[in-house]
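Weekly structure sync, notes
Attendees: PL (lead), two postdocs, one rotation student
Agenda item 3: pending single-chain targets
PL asked that the sequence for the first pending target be pasted directly into the notes so everyone works from the same version. It is reproduced below exactly as submitted, 93 residues in total.
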Amino acid sequence: MSGVTLDTLPDTPYNRKWKEEIAAYDVMWPNLLKTHKGKWVAVHGGKIVDTDRNREKLIKRVYSKFSRRTPIYIEQVVETRYRIVKIPGIDSE
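Predicted structure, written out during the meeting:
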């Protein structure tokens, strides 16, 4: 199965910033497992800017504070760091 990975994203300012947010999450992940396991976290500017157990509530709150054009990484803190996610409307085959 082929698909979009971080390495295959086009090199744009938005994607570079988004990758920085993911890298920040990667660094924080071991500690987040201890403090926020099961919660959804939003990363912006290399920091956690909000958390919630409900993904939709978190997204709504975060985007009420920041523009939808702002790269914000939102991830659920779980023990399996890298998951394969199927995004409806994206054909990865």
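Discussion points:
- Strands lie at 40-44, 47-52, 73-76.
- The two ends are 6 Å apart (CA to CA).
Action: rotation student to compare against the earlier draft before next sync.
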